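Box S2. Input/output pair 1.
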Amino acid sequence: MPFLFRGTGTLIGLPGTTVTHTVTITNDGNASDTFDVEVGKSGWNTVLGQATITLAAGASGTVAVAVDVPVDALDGDSDNVVATATSQGDGTQTANTTLTTQAGTVYALSVVGTGTLTGEVGTTVTHTITITNNGNVSDTFDVSAGTAVWATVLGETSVTLAAGASATVQVVVTVPVTATDGEMDSVVVTVTSQGDDTQTADVTLTTVAQVTEVEPPMTNIYLPMIMRP
Protein backbone atom coordinates (compact mmCIF):
# COMPACT_ATOMS: atom_id res chain seq x y z
CA MET A 1 0.00 0.00 0.00
CA PRO A 2 1.35 3.51 -0.78
CA PHE A 3 2.19 5.70 2.19
CA LEU A 4 3.97 8.89 3.27
CA PHE A 5 6.88 8.81 5.72
CA ARG A 6 8.55 11.85 7.25
CA GLY A 7 10.66 12.67 10.32
CA THR A 8 11.61 15.59 12.52
CA GLY A 9 14.91 16.19 10.70
CA THR A 10 17.48 17.80 13.02
CA LEU A 11 16.92 18.22 16.74
CA ILE A 12 19.32 19.63 19.35
CA GLY A 13 19.90 18.28 22.84
CA LEU A 14 22.32 19.00 25.65
CA PRO A 15 25.03 16.43 26.48
CA GLY A 16 23.74 13.79 28.86
CA THR A 17 20.11 14.17 27.76
CA THR A 18 17.81 12.18 25.49
CA VAL A 19 16.35 13.68 22.32
CA THR A 20 13.10 12.17 21.08
CA HIS A 21 12.50 12.29 17.34
CA THR A 22 9.17 11.44 15.81
CA VAL A 23 8.52 9.76 12.46
CA THR A 24 5.05 10.07 10.97
CA ILE A 25 3.50 7.47 8.67
CA THR A 26 0.38 8.20 6.62
CA ASN A 27 -1.44 5.27 4.96
CA ASP A 28 -2.34 6.54 1.51
CA GLY A 29 -3.76 3.19 0.49
CA ASN A 30 -7.44 2.24 0.38
CA ALA A 31 -7.20 -0.49 2.99
CA SER A 32 -5.81 -0.94 6.48
CA ASP A 33 -2.12 -1.82 6.53
CA THR A 34 0.62 -2.59 9.00
CA PHE A 35 4.01 -0.96 8.60
CA ASP A 36 7.33 -2.27 9.84
CA VAL A 37 9.64 0.41 11.24
CA GLU A 38 13.36 0.01 11.84
CA VAL A 39 16.43 2.20 12.41
CA GLY A 40 19.90 1.69 10.97
CA LYS A 41 23.24 1.87 12.71
CA SER A 42 24.18 5.00 14.62
CA GLY A 43 27.08 6.22 16.71
CA TRP A 44 24.90 7.33 19.60
CA ASN A 45 22.57 5.05 21.55
CA THR A 46 19.25 4.96 19.69
CA VAL A 47 16.00 3.29 20.77
CA LEU A 48 12.98 2.73 18.52
CA GLY A 49 9.64 3.21 20.28
CA GLN A 50 7.86 0.44 18.38
CA ALA A 51 8.68 -1.87 15.49
CA THR A 52 5.23 -1.94 13.84
CA ILE A 53 2.22 0.31 13.49
CA THR A 54 -1.20 -0.51 12.01
CA LEU A 55 -3.14 2.24 10.27
CA ALA A 56 -6.55 2.43 8.65
CA ALA A 57 -6.77 3.78 5.09
CA GLY A 58 -5.98 7.51 5.14
CA ALA A 59 -4.89 7.47 8.78
CA SER A 60 -1.60 8.68 10.21
CA GLY A 61 0.45 7.56 13.18
CA THR A 62 3.75 8.37 14.84
CA VAL A 63 6.66 6.35 16.15
CA ALA A 64 9.21 7.76 18.61
CA VAL A 65 12.96 7.40 18.10
CA ALA A 66 14.98 8.30 21.22
CA VAL A 67 18.64 9.25 20.88
CA ASP A 68 21.01 9.70 23.84
CA VAL A 69 23.44 12.61 23.49
CA PRO A 70 26.78 11.50 25.06
CA VAL A 71 27.81 13.38 28.19
CA ASP A 72 31.18 14.22 26.58
CA ALA A 73 29.73 15.50 23.30
CA LEU A 74 31.21 18.82 22.19
CA ASP A 75 29.16 21.70 20.89
CA GLY A 76 28.01 20.92 17.35
CA ASP A 77 28.80 17.20 17.47
CA SER A 78 26.06 15.28 15.69
CA ASP A 79 24.89 11.80 14.79
CA ASN A 80 22.60 10.53 12.03
CA VAL A 81 20.30 7.55 11.96
CA VAL A 82 18.16 6.39 9.06
CA ALA A 83 14.62 5.25 9.91
CA THR A 84 12.89 2.98 7.40
CA ALA A 85 9.22 2.03 7.05
CA THR A 86 7.93 -0.85 4.93
CA SER A 87 4.36 -1.85 4.09
CA GLN A 88 3.47 -5.39 5.11
CA GLY A 89 0.72 -5.39 2.47
CA ASP A 90 3.21 -4.58 -0.29
CA GLY A 91 6.88 -5.08 0.53
CA THR A 92 7.92 -2.97 -2.46
CA GLN A 93 6.42 0.06 -0.73
CA THR A 94 9.21 1.38 1.48
CA ALA A 95 10.54 4.79 2.49
CA ASN A 96 13.18 6.21 4.76
CA THR A 97 14.08 9.44 6.48
CA THR A 98 17.27 10.66 8.15
CA LEU A 99 17.11 11.86 11.73
CA THR A 100 19.95 14.07 12.93
CA THR A 101 20.73 14.75 16.57
CA GLN A 102 23.08 17.59 17.44
CA ALA A 103 24.75 18.40 20.75
CA GLY A 104 23.81 21.80 22.14
CA THR A 105 26.07 24.37 23.76
CA VAL A 106 27.00 24.15 27.42
CA TYR A 107 28.80 26.99 29.21
CA ALA A 108 30.25 26.10 32.61
CA LEU A 109 33.35 26.78 34.71
CA SER A 110 35.05 26.09 38.02
CA VAL A 111 37.66 28.09 39.93
CA VAL A 112 40.03 27.13 42.74
CA GLY A 113 42.57 29.33 44.49
CA THR A 114 45.52 29.12 46.85
CA GLY A 115 43.40 30.17 49.82
CA THR A 116 45.59 31.67 52.55
CA LEU A 117 49.25 32.56 52.08
CA THR A 118 51.72 34.31 54.40
CA GLY A 119 54.24 36.94 53.46
CA GLU A 120 56.82 39.14 55.17
CA VAL A 121 55.90 42.77 55.60
CA GLY A 122 57.23 44.87 52.74
CA THR A 123 57.18 41.98 50.27
CA THR A 124 54.71 40.68 47.68
CA VAL A 125 52.75 37.44 47.88
CA THR A 126 51.70 35.69 44.66
CA HIS A 127 48.42 33.81 44.78
CA THR A 128 47.28 31.58 41.92
CA ILE A 129 43.76 30.79 40.76
CA THR A 130 43.04 27.92 38.38
CA ILE A 131 40.15 28.30 35.93
CA THR A 132 38.67 25.25 34.21
CA ASN A 133 36.28 25.39 31.26
CA ASN A 134 33.70 22.75 32.17
CA GLY A 135 31.59 23.54 29.13
CA ASN A 136 31.64 21.81 25.76
CA VAL A 137 32.71 24.81 23.69
CA SER A 138 35.65 27.23 23.67
CA ASP A 139 34.98 30.22 25.90
CA THR A 140 36.62 33.39 27.17
CA PHE A 141 36.46 34.13 30.89
CA ASP A 142 36.66 37.60 32.42
CA VAL A 143 38.64 37.85 35.67
CA SER A 144 38.05 40.66 38.17
CA ALA A 145 39.13 41.41 41.72
CA GLY A 146 36.93 42.95 44.38
CA THR A 147 37.91 45.66 46.82
CA ALA A 148 41.01 45.01 48.89
CA VAL A 149 42.85 47.11 51.48
CA TRP A 150 46.31 46.01 50.39
CA ALA A 151 47.53 46.65 46.87
CA THR A 152 46.33 43.80 44.64
CA VAL A 153 47.20 43.25 40.98
CA LEU A 154 45.72 40.70 38.57
CA GLY A 155 48.13 39.04 36.17
CA GLU A 156 45.40 38.78 33.49
CA THR A 157 41.85 40.10 33.15
CA SER A 158 40.64 37.48 30.65
CA VAL A 159 41.52 33.93 29.65
CA THR A 160 40.38 31.93 26.60
CA LEU A 161 40.10 28.17 27.06
CA ALA A 162 39.11 25.24 24.89
CA ALA A 163 36.44 22.91 26.24
CA GLY A 164 37.85 20.98 29.19
CA ALA A 165 41.05 23.04 29.38
CA SER A 166 42.46 24.85 32.43
CA ALA A 167 44.69 27.87 32.97
CA THR A 168 46.14 29.79 35.90
CA VAL A 169 46.05 33.48 36.70
CA GLN A 170 48.35 35.12 39.24
CA VAL A 171 47.11 37.58 41.83
CA VAL A 172 49.92 39.59 43.42
CA VAL A 173 49.34 41.19 46.84
CA THR A 174 51.73 43.67 48.48
CA VAL A 175 52.06 43.29 52.25
CA PRO A 176 52.47 46.80 53.69
CA VAL A 177 55.63 47.55 55.67
CA THR A 178 53.35 48.93 58.40
CA ALA A 179 51.38 45.70 58.78
CA THR A 180 51.56 43.99 62.15
CA ASP A 181 52.34 40.32 62.62
CA GLY A 182 49.22 38.23 61.88
CA GLU A 183 47.34 41.09 60.24
CA MET A 184 45.47 39.92 57.14
CA ASP A 185 43.62 41.11 54.09
CA SER A 186 41.27 39.24 51.75
CA VAL A 187 40.17 39.77 48.16
CA VAL A 188 37.40 38.06 46.22
CA VAL A 189 38.31 37.18 42.63
CA THR A 190 35.39 36.59 40.28
CA VAL A 191 35.47 34.70 36.98
CA THR A 192 32.63 35.08 34.46
CA SER A 193 31.92 33.31 31.17
CA GLN A 194 31.61 35.63 28.17
CA GLY A 195 29.49 33.01 26.42
CA ASP A 196 26.93 32.99 29.23
CA ASP A 197 27.36 35.66 31.90
CA THR A 198 25.08 33.77 34.27
CA GLN A 199 27.94 31.28 34.60
CA THR A 200 30.21 32.78 37.23
CA ALA A 201 32.37 31.61 40.13
CA ASP A 202 34.47 33.31 42.75
CA VAL A 203 37.25 32.47 45.16
CA THR A 204 38.57 34.25 48.23
CA LEU A 205 42.30 34.81 48.60
CA THR A 206 43.70 35.77 52.00
CA THR A 207 47.15 37.17 52.71
CA VAL A 208 48.62 37.17 56.23
CA ALA A 209 51.44 39.50 57.28
CA GLN A 210 54.45 38.05 59.02
CA VAL A 211 56.99 40.02 61.03
CA THR A 212 60.22 38.19 61.70
CA GLU A 213 62.12 39.49 64.67
CA VAL A 214 65.75 40.16 63.83
CA GLU A 215 68.07 39.60 66.73
CA PRO A 216 70.83 42.21 67.12
CA PRO A 217 74.32 40.98 66.26
CA MET A 218 76.45 39.74 69.13
CA THR A 219 79.09 42.18 70.36
CA ASN A 220 82.36 40.85 71.63
CA ILE A 221 83.93 42.73 74.53
CA TYR A 222 87.69 42.37 74.97
CA LEU A 223 89.18 43.06 78.39
CA PRO A 224 92.87 43.81 78.92
CA MET A 225 94.95 41.09 80.44
CA ILE A 226 96.67 42.21 83.64
CA MET A 227 99.85 40.39 84.61
CA ARG A 228 100.73 40.35 88.29
CA PRO A 229 104.38 40.69 89.16
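Box S3. Input/output pair 2.
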Amino acid sequence: MKKIIVGRHAYFGIGSSLVLATCSTLVLLSYAEQKTMGFMLQRSNFYIAWAFNALIAFVLIRICVWATRLLDYRYPWPRSYAKRWPKQLCLVILLPLLLSFLMVLVYFLLYRKNILQTTYFKRYLLLDTLGVVLLNAALFFDHQRHHKPLKIPKKSRKPNTDLKWPLSVDQIAYIYAKNKACFAVDFDGEELFWQQSLAKTLDCLNRADFYLVRRSFIVNRKAIAQLEKQDKRLKVSLISPLAHSISVSRSEAQAFKNWWYYSAELPEMDKAE
Protein backbone atom coordinates (compact mmCIF):
# COMPACT_ATOMS: atom_id res chain seq x y z
CA MET A 1 0.00 0.00 0.00
CA LYS A 2 1.35 3.41 -0.95
CA LYS A 3 2.40 5.49 2.04
CA ILE A 4 0.66 8.86 2.39
CA ILE A 5 3.19 11.65 2.94
CA VAL A 6 2.31 14.53 5.24
CA GLY A 7 4.09 17.69 6.30
CA ARG A 8 6.82 17.63 8.95
CA HIS A 9 5.19 20.08 11.35
CA ALA A 10 3.16 17.99 13.84
CA TYR A 11 1.05 20.81 15.40
CA PHE A 12 -0.76 19.36 18.45
CA GLY A 13 0.37 16.05 19.91
CA ILE A 14 -2.01 13.34 21.12
CA GLY A 15 -1.73 14.46 24.74
CA SER A 16 -2.42 18.10 23.90
CA SER A 17 -5.33 17.05 21.70
CA LEU A 18 -6.85 15.02 24.55
CA VAL A 19 -6.55 17.91 27.02
CA LEU A 20 -7.98 20.36 24.48
CA ALA A 21 -10.89 18.02 23.69
CA THR A 22 -11.71 17.45 27.37
CA CYS A 23 -11.62 21.14 28.35
CA SER A 24 -13.44 22.43 25.27
CA THR A 25 -16.32 19.95 25.62
CA LEU A 26 -16.71 20.85 29.30
CA VAL A 27 -17.05 24.52 28.37
CA LEU A 28 -19.40 23.65 25.49
CA LEU A 29 -21.72 21.55 27.65
CA SER A 30 -21.87 24.08 30.48
CA TYR A 31 -22.72 26.87 28.01
CA ALA A 32 -25.19 24.92 25.87
CA GLU A 33 -27.14 23.38 28.77
CA GLN A 34 -27.35 26.78 30.52
CA LYS A 35 -27.18 25.20 33.96
CA THR A 36 -24.79 25.65 36.85
CA MET A 37 -21.70 23.47 36.98
CA GLY A 38 -22.61 22.19 40.44
CA PHE A 39 -26.00 20.98 39.20
CA MET A 40 -24.50 19.16 36.18
CA LEU A 41 -21.74 17.49 38.22
CA GLN A 42 -24.41 15.81 40.37
CA ARG A 43 -25.99 14.08 37.37
CA SER A 44 -24.56 10.81 36.04
CA ASN A 45 -25.85 11.55 32.52
CA PHE A 46 -23.57 14.58 32.39
CA TYR A 47 -20.43 12.44 32.70
CA ILE A 48 -21.61 10.11 29.92
CA ALA A 49 -22.35 13.06 27.64
CA TRP A 50 -19.03 14.68 28.57
CA ALA A 51 -17.05 11.51 27.82
CA PHE A 52 -18.79 10.92 24.49
CA ASN A 53 -18.43 14.55 23.39
CA ALA A 54 -14.78 14.59 24.47
CA LEU A 55 -14.20 11.48 22.35
CA ILE A 56 -15.85 13.14 19.34
CA ALA A 57 -13.81 16.31 19.86
CA PHE A 58 -10.57 14.31 20.16
CA VAL A 59 -11.26 12.43 16.92
CA LEU A 60 -12.10 15.69 15.11
CA ILE A 61 -8.94 17.40 16.36
CA ARG A 62 -6.74 14.52 15.19
CA ILE A 63 -8.51 14.46 11.79
CA CYS A 64 -8.03 18.23 11.41
CA VAL A 65 -4.35 18.00 12.32
CA TRP A 66 -3.73 15.07 9.96
CA ALA A 67 -5.64 16.71 7.09
CA THR A 68 -3.76 19.98 7.63
CA ARG A 69 -0.41 18.17 7.53
CA LEU A 70 -1.49 16.43 4.33
CA LEU A 71 -2.30 19.79 2.73
CA ASP A 72 0.96 21.25 4.09
CA TYR A 73 2.84 18.72 1.97
CA ARG A 74 0.73 18.91 -1.17
CA TYR A 75 -0.43 22.55 -1.13
CA PRO A 76 1.84 24.58 1.21
CA TRP A 77 0.54 27.97 2.35
CA PRO A 78 3.53 29.94 0.96
CA ARG A 79 3.05 28.43 -2.48
CA SER A 80 -0.50 29.68 -3.04
CA TYR A 81 -3.00 30.88 -0.45
CA ALA A 82 -5.75 31.01 -3.11
CA LYS A 83 -5.34 27.29 -3.93
CA ARG A 84 -4.99 26.22 -0.29
CA TRP A 85 -8.07 27.89 1.26
CA PRO A 86 -10.77 25.96 -0.71
CA LYS A 87 -9.06 22.66 0.11
CA GLN A 88 -8.65 23.65 3.76
CA LEU A 89 -12.35 24.58 3.89
CA CYS A 90 -13.52 21.26 2.43
CA LEU A 91 -11.06 18.86 4.06
CA VAL A 92 -10.42 20.47 7.47
CA ILE A 93 -13.71 22.27 8.19
CA LEU A 94 -16.68 20.80 6.30
CA LEU A 95 -15.57 17.15 6.45
CA PRO A 96 -14.93 17.17 10.25
CA LEU A 97 -18.32 18.85 10.81
CA LEU A 98 -20.00 16.15 8.74
CA LEU A 99 -18.23 13.41 10.72
CA SER A 100 -19.20 15.16 13.95
CA PHE A 101 -22.86 15.20 12.90
CA LEU A 102 -22.76 11.47 12.06
CA MET A 103 -21.22 10.59 15.43
CA VAL A 104 -23.77 12.71 17.31
CA LEU A 105 -26.53 11.05 15.29
CA VAL A 106 -25.25 7.64 16.41
CA TYR A 107 -25.19 8.88 20.01
CA PHE A 108 -28.85 9.91 19.91
CA LEU A 109 -29.83 6.69 18.14
CA LEU A 110 -28.28 4.70 20.97
CA TYR A 111 -30.56 6.58 23.38
CA ARG A 112 -33.49 6.19 20.96
CA LYS A 113 -33.90 9.93 20.55
CA ASN A 114 -34.83 11.90 17.45
CA ILE A 115 -32.07 14.41 16.80
CA LEU A 116 -34.63 16.85 15.39
CA GLN A 117 -36.32 16.97 18.78
CA THR A 118 -33.10 17.86 20.61
CA THR A 119 -31.22 21.17 20.94
CA TYR A 120 -28.40 20.00 18.65
CA PHE A 121 -29.28 22.21 15.66
CA LYS A 122 -30.23 25.18 17.85
CA ARG A 123 -27.15 25.23 20.07
CA TYR A 124 -24.53 22.54 19.51
CA LEU A 125 -24.12 22.73 15.73
CA LEU A 126 -23.22 26.42 15.86
CA LEU A 127 -20.79 25.83 18.72
CA ASP A 128 -19.22 22.87 16.89
CA THR A 129 -18.77 25.00 13.77
CA LEU A 130 -17.21 27.79 15.80
CA GLY A 131 -14.87 25.32 17.48
CA VAL A 132 -13.65 23.83 14.18
CA VAL A 133 -13.10 27.29 12.69
CA LEU A 134 -11.11 28.37 15.76
CA LEU A 135 -9.07 25.17 15.55
CA ASN A 136 -8.24 25.91 11.91
CA ALA A 137 -7.22 29.44 12.86
CA ALA A 138 -4.95 28.03 15.59
CA LEU A 139 -3.36 25.57 13.14
CA PHE A 140 -2.81 28.33 10.60
CA PHE A 141 -1.14 30.73 13.07
CA ASP A 142 0.93 27.88 14.52
CA HIS A 143 2.17 27.08 11.02
CA GLN A 144 2.99 30.71 10.33
CA ARG A 145 4.85 30.99 13.63
CA HIS A 146 7.07 27.99 12.92
CA HIS A 147 7.44 28.47 9.19
CA LYS A 148 10.81 29.80 8.13
CA PRO A 149 10.45 32.01 5.06
CA LEU A 150 12.54 31.02 2.10
CA LYS A 151 15.54 33.20 1.54
CA ILE A 152 15.28 34.95 -1.81
CA PRO A 153 18.36 34.10 -3.87
CA LYS A 154 20.60 36.85 -5.07
CA LYS A 155 20.19 38.08 -8.58
CA SER A 156 22.30 36.06 -10.98
CA ARG A 157 24.57 37.57 -13.57
CA LYS A 158 23.07 38.75 -16.83
CA PRO A 159 22.49 35.82 -19.22
CA ASN A 160 24.54 35.50 -22.36
CA THR A 161 22.03 36.37 -25.08
CA ASP A 162 24.47 35.48 -27.88
CA LEU A 163 23.95 31.74 -27.39
CA LYS A 164 21.90 30.06 -30.11
CA TRP A 165 19.76 27.09 -29.09
CA PRO A 166 17.95 24.53 -31.25
CA LEU A 167 14.90 24.87 -28.96
CA SER A 168 13.16 27.84 -27.42
CA VAL A 169 13.06 27.97 -23.62
CA ASP A 170 9.32 27.17 -23.57
CA GLN A 171 9.95 23.95 -25.51
CA ILE A 172 12.59 22.56 -23.13
CA ALA A 173 11.27 19.83 -20.82
CA TYR A 174 14.67 18.83 -19.46
CA ILE A 175 18.35 18.80 -20.36
CA TYR A 176 20.78 16.13 -19.22
CA ALA A 177 24.47 15.31 -19.49
CA LYS A 178 25.75 11.86 -20.44
CA ASN A 179 29.23 10.72 -21.44
CA LYS A 180 30.52 14.33 -21.51
CA ALA A 181 27.75 15.38 -23.92
CA CYS A 182 24.49 17.23 -23.32
CA PHE A 183 21.07 16.49 -24.73
CA ALA A 184 17.77 18.39 -24.58
CA VAL A 185 14.32 16.80 -24.61
CA ASP A 186 11.19 18.71 -25.59
CA PHE A 187 7.66 18.11 -24.29
CA ASP A 188 6.96 15.64 -27.10
CA GLY A 189 9.87 13.47 -25.95
CA GLU A 190 12.09 14.34 -28.93
CA GLU A 191 15.79 14.38 -28.02
CA LEU A 192 18.28 16.84 -29.52
CA PHE A 193 22.01 17.29 -29.14
CA TRP A 194 22.80 20.29 -26.93
CA GLN A 195 25.97 22.21 -27.66
CA GLN A 196 26.20 24.25 -24.46
CA SER A 197 27.29 22.98 -21.07
CA LEU A 198 24.74 22.69 -18.27
CA ALA A 199 26.42 25.53 -16.36
CA LYS A 200 26.19 27.97 -19.28
CA THR A 201 22.65 26.84 -20.02
CA LEU A 202 21.51 27.33 -16.44
CA ASP A 203 22.85 30.88 -16.42
CA CYS A 204 20.45 31.70 -19.26
CA LEU A 205 17.36 30.20 -17.65
CA ASN A 206 14.91 31.52 -15.09
CA ARG A 207 15.76 29.75 -11.81
CA ALA A 208 12.10 29.81 -10.75
CA ASP A 209 11.26 27.61 -13.76
CA PHE A 210 14.37 25.39 -14.07
CA TYR A 211 16.34 23.45 -11.46
CA LEU A 212 19.67 21.61 -11.62
CA VAL A 213 19.46 18.10 -10.13
CA ARG A 214 22.55 15.99 -9.38
CA ARG A 215 24.68 18.38 -11.47
CA SER A 216 23.66 16.45 -14.57
CA PHE A 217 19.97 17.19 -15.05
CA ILE A 218 18.12 20.49 -15.61
CA VAL A 219 14.36 20.06 -15.33
CA ASN A 220 11.55 22.43 -16.28
CA ARG A 221 8.88 23.01 -13.61
CA LYS A 222 6.15 22.49 -16.24
CA ALA A 223 7.52 19.00 -17.00
CA ILE A 224 7.06 17.74 -13.43
CA ALA A 225 3.94 15.70 -12.72
CA GLN A 226 4.42 14.87 -9.04
CA LEU A 227 6.87 14.29 -6.18
CA GLU A 228 6.97 11.03 -4.25
CA LYS A 229 9.00 9.91 -1.25
CA GLN A 230 10.90 6.74 -2.12
CA ASP A 231 12.97 5.23 0.67
CA LYS A 232 15.28 8.07 1.73
CA ARG A 233 15.15 9.76 -1.66
CA LEU A 234 12.69 11.96 -3.50
CA LYS A 235 11.27 10.65 -6.77
CA VAL A 236 10.38 13.32 -9.35
CA SER A 237 8.00 11.95 -11.98
CA LEU A 238 7.66 13.79 -15.28
CA ILE A 239 4.50 14.26 -17.30
CA SER A 240 3.46 12.11 -20.24
CA PRO A 241 4.74 11.44 -22.88
CA LEU A 242 8.15 11.94 -21.28
CA ALA A 243 7.68 8.87 -19.04
CA HIS A 244 10.83 9.61 -17.08
CA SER A 245 11.63 10.01 -13.40
CA ILE A 246 14.49 11.67 -11.53
CA SER A 247 15.85 10.48 -8.21
CA VAL A 248 16.84 13.28 -5.85
CA SER A 249 19.21 12.34 -3.03
CA ARG A 250 18.28 12.87 0.61
CA SER A 251 20.81 15.71 0.94
CA GLU A 252 19.30 17.54 -2.05
CA ALA A 253 15.65 16.77 -1.32
CA GLN A 254 14.90 19.72 0.99
CA ALA A 255 16.49 22.27 -1.38
CA PHE A 256 14.52 20.81 -4.29
CA LYS A 257 11.24 20.95 -2.34
CA ASN A 258 11.95 24.56 -1.37
CA TRP A 259 12.35 25.38 -5.07
CA TRP A 260 9.27 23.37 -6.06
CA TYR A 261 6.96 24.75 -3.39
CA TYR A 262 8.16 28.31 -2.97
CA SER A 263 10.23 29.64 -5.88
CA ALA A 264 7.17 30.01 -8.11
CA GLU A 265 6.14 32.88 -5.82
CA LEU A 266 9.46 34.69 -6.19
CA PRO A 267 9.98 37.55 -8.64
CA GLU A 268 11.59 36.56 -11.91
CA MET A 269 15.08 37.78 -11.11
CA ASP A 270 17.04 35.54 -13.44
CA LYS A 271 15.60 36.74 -16.72
CA ALA A 272 17.48 39.06 -19.02
CA GLU A 273 17.01 42.70 -18.24
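Caption for Box S3: Strands lie at 172-178, 181-186, 191-194, 210-213, 217-220, 224-230, 233-238, 245-248. The chain has seven helices and eight strands.
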